[in-house]
Structure formats: structure tokens, C-alpha cells
Amino acid sequence: MSVNKVILVGRLGRDPEVRYLPNGEAVANFGVATSEQWKDRNGERQERTEWHNITMYRRLAEIAGQYLKKGSQVYIEGRIQSRKYTGKDGVERTAYEIIANEMKMIGGRDMGGSSSDFDGGDYAASSSASAAPVAAASSVPPAAPRREVNKPAPVVDDLDDDIPF
Fold it and tell me: What's the rounded Cα separation, in Å, for the pair 133 and 142?
């Protein structure tokens, strides 16, 4: 048995580039930056940013093109795939990219320049030709939850002490 699964949470370095294959299938490409921070032996803070090339297909690609913008924070699940190519200098190189099959937009409207009609949501793609959003985005933001003011919290008398932890 083997597993090829990647999970990333990062920010887009540029707007997604969406194009269409001859068969009409959408493809989106963009880069996501992830950062890690640590203190070195001298106690100085260090930081390293890693860039990941992301590729999405079908409906997921269209959703990314519509809602993601440079700076958007996003959760990506997918698999890593390598491909070999020959550079302009004639040297054979290997490129690695993440083929995404799930995306969750995080951070909201004010966190990273996402579209003004974005309402958040989880989007998943399957290996089938039709990938559909799990939570659809709409042009009307959802209503804020109502809060009742000055309502006392209920008193709980009967607590079960048989909790095993």
C-alpha cells in the first residue's frame, strides 16, 4: 500500500490563471506560499517560505478562477506529481506540482483580497468529470446570526460524573 497526499495551508502569490483544454476542461494554475518560523541556536528568529505550484481541473479550477485572488488564504488537499522537462539551457530538470482535489477558502473577505461576492465554502473535486461544490458560493452573503441580549445561561444541575477522562 502507498499514499500520496499533500495538505497545504498558505497564501496565493498571484491570481489563478485559468485556461481551457481542447476538450473544454478547465485548468487553473497558481502558486501557494507556506512559511515556517523557528529560533536558531543564537535565539534569532528565522523564517523560510516555500512555494508550491498548484494545478486544479474541471469545476474546481473554475471556482478557483472566480473566487481566489492574490493574497487569498487557502487550504489545499491533493497529491504531488513530478514531471521532467528540458530547460532552455538543454539541462533536464524535474518540476513538482500539487494536483489539487479539494480546496477550502479561509480567511474571509478581509483576509487576503478575495472576491467581494465570496461567502466562504469548501470545494471538492472527485476523479469523475463533474466536480461540484460542497458548499456553494453565492452573490449574497449569508445573514449574520442573531444574538439575544441579557438572556442568562441555563443552569445545569445534573452533571454525569462517569466521564472517563
Answer: 17
